[in-house]
Amino acid sequence: VNGVKQVTYDQLMRLRRSGEKFFLVDVLSSDDYSTGHIPGAVSFPVKTITLYNAVNKIPIGSNVVVYCLDNHCPYSNEAAQKLTGYGYKVLAYKGGLDEWRQKGNALQK
User: Fold this and answer.
1) How far apart are CA 107 and CA 97, in angstroms?
2) Longest CA pairwise span in the chain (Å)
């Protein structure tokens, strides 16, 4: 969608098991993040994503997977477009928190 590369749940799980270094980024609000996020994810609310904030959080050129709540949440695409523009290699996990939980995984608080 809009040039954003998507990643499925299975692809995300393979990536997590592969040991390849990537940043998992929760683009929901920090309040949402504190109520529960995918283990290992860093909080980076979409409204706070600027080049300055990004380079202070994640090294430029890094592999990044962004997610929000579910398939209908526009934030992951918005975040992916911003971060791609700053030079990151970005995938959007569209299933987000909802699919993660539906697959029987716990959230980290």
Assistant:
1) 8
2) 36
Distance CA 16, CA 75 (A): 22
The tokens for 109 are 């608080």
pTM (2 d.p.): 0.95
Using DSSP, state whether 5 is helix, strand or coil.
strand
pLDDT recorded at residue 3:
77
- Calpha distance 86→102 (Å, rounded): 33
**Residue 48: CB partners within 8 Å, gap ≥ 6?**
none
List the beta strands (DSSP E) in the chain.
Answer: 5-7, 23-26, 42-43, 63-67, 89-93
Q: And the tokens for 36?
A: 């529960």
DSSP symbol at 109:
-
- Provide φ and ψ at 6, rounded to 5°: -95, 155
Q: How large is the average pLDDT for residues 8-24?
A: 96
CA distance 49 to 109: 22
Alpha-carbon span 66 to 87, nearest angstrom: 15
The residue type of 39 is P
